[in-house]
Design goal:
Blueprint: H1 5-12, E1 37-39, E2 42-44, E3 50-53, H2 56-59, H3 68-79, H4 89-101, E4 107-111, H5 114-129, E5 133-137, H6 147-150, H7 161-164, E6 167-170, H8 175-184, E7 189-194, H9 206-217, E8 220-224, H10 237-240, E9 247-250, E10 261-265, H11 267-270, H12 294-309, H13 312-333, E11 340-345, E12 348-353, H14 362-374, E13 377-378, H15 390-413
Parallel strand pairs: 3-13, 5-6, 5-7, 7-8, 8-9
Antiparallel strand pairs: 1-2, 2-3, 4-10, 9-10, 11-12
Helix pairs in contact: 3-12, 4-12, 8-9, 13-15, 14-15
């Protein structure tokens, strides 16, 4: 019997994909197990099935799959040699671009993915302050696969306690919980790292209160912009909320799916990773062979050009507003607005699926995703791109009407006969 793509994947790749968020347990069983290519807002299976996609490469593809301008810019850099023996002119231009674009950024170090730069930010903060502890919000699910963070989660197997024991947790939007950490660990906290926002908006002064606490206690204030960067605002959530961090990290949508991440921030902190201060103790800061690969940086430069030229961030907000209002209108018409709704920022919406009793339900979420796929819309979550336009909105709302009609029936009569797939599982769980 011929092996399926899923079987072949699991035979040679632990987890069946190189990111757990792409795994079989994150999608209904009627989702394609493998994809061959993407074009605009659509992805295609090897069998030729076409799906409107809202995963968009784990939110990294913000313009659209296979964009020719970005592809050409990348290819041009490949033909220049891609990875040279000394710093490249492309590397310089990309660094200058980011420094010019974002007010809080004086210097930048590039890498290939987010975990590298968030870990580098922690390392830099510890070197700068001489302290060991880093504080993060308990509600925000992911900062790095490195031990300092992942060892503090339920997926701690393979990590060492010595690495994660210095990671402290506080509650987002609860400034008193952070104050308590500073009181418990006086002059011991190197940094506070947080996402400025997720689906939850910061209270009026929360971010500025965090910043003030960091300043008063000699800690480095770090904003992780992996998701919010180039989506909330062209200059990131930090500009949207009117705050300047000491350090910030970027990734995902920097280069429309090409592998680029950045550690950036104030010169007085960043420069300790330099080599110009004679006699200063060195720190080995994000020194990698492929960190400043020219092809990806060329894609970054072109992506920034398109974001500005086509007012892409404005499109995120406009499209997201229409999507939220459209789906919530359907839900209300069906009388299930308390069991299914879309919330969050229009530039990064989030849908909530609940059962009949009003409890958040992975089973009901699976049912919704399953039925959207029946109409060839893949919506594991909602990542809007510039390629999502009016045609895609109409297709999405039509699929949502179908899916929510089935959802309503399942609320009335139960999941049996409606849910035809194993229930999707949380990525962050201790056991398979």
């Amino acid at each position: 019997m011929k092996e399926t793509y899923s079987q072949r994947l699991h035979k040679v790749i632990p987890g069946g994909a190189h990111t757990y968020s792409r795994g079989d347990d994150q999608f209904p069983s009627n989702a394609p197990s493998i994809l061959e290519r993407g074009e605009g807002a659509y992805v295609f299976s090897p069998e030729g099935n076409k799906y409107l996609d809202y995963g968009m490469g784990l939110r990294s593809v913000n313009i659209g799959y296979g964009n020719k301008e970005i592809g050409d810019a990348c290819y041009e850099e490949i033909l220049k040699g891609n990875n040279l023996t000394r710093a490249s002119l492309t590397e310089l231009k990309a660094a200058e671009l980011l420094c010019e674009l974002i007010p809080s950024v004086d210097m930048v170090k590039f890498a290939k993915h987010g975990s590298t730069v968030t870990t580098a930010a922690v390392k830099l903060a510890r070197a700068y302050t001489g302290n060991k502890f880093v504080a993060i919000p308990v509600e925000q699910p992911f900062f790095s696969y490195d031990d300092w963070f992942i060892g503090s989660t339920v997926i701690s197997r393979g990590t060492v306690d010595e690495a994660s024991q210095f990671t402290l947790k506080f509650n987002y939007n609860d400034i008193d919980s952070l104050k308590a950490l500073f009181e418990k660990h006086p002059n011991e906290i190197a940094a506070v790292m947080l996402e400025a926002a997720t689906t939850v908006e910061p209270k009026a002064d929360f971010l500025h209160e965090v910043q003030a606490l960091c300043k008063a206690n000699g800690a480095v204030f770090i904003i992780d912009e992996m998701i919010t960067g180039f989506r909330w605002d062209l200059q990131g959530a930090q500009t949207y909320y009117g705050i300047e961090p000491d350090l910030c990290t970027f990734g995902k949508a920097m280069a429309n799916g090409f592998a680029v991440a950045a550690l950036a921030g104030k010169r007085e902190i960043m420069q300790i990773g330099g080599i110009l201060e004679e006699g200063a103790e060195r720190i080995f800061l994000t020194s990698t062979t492929h960190g400043a690969e020219m092809s990806a940086l060329g894609a970054f430069i072109k992506t920034m050009e398109i974001l500005k030229r086509d007012r892409v961030v404005e499109h995120f907000w406009n499209y997201g507003n229409k999507l939220i209002n459209g789906i919530n209108t359907i839900s209300k018409e069906l009388g299930i607005q308390n069991q299914f709704y879309v919330e969050g920022y229009p530039c990064s919406p989030n849908y909530v699926a609940k059962d009949k009793e009003g409890n958040v339900s992975l089973a009901m979420r699976t049912l919704f995703a399953q039925e959207m796929l029946e109409k060839k819309v893949m919506m594991p979550y909602i990542a809007v791109s510039y390629s999502h336009q009016e045609t895609e909105l109409d297709m999405t709302l039509s699929a949502a009407k179908h899916a929510l009609t089935i959802y309503q029936k399942a609320l009335e009569s139960g999941l049996e006969g409606h849910l035809k797939s194993p229930v999707i599982k949380p990525v962050f769980r201790k056991y398979n």
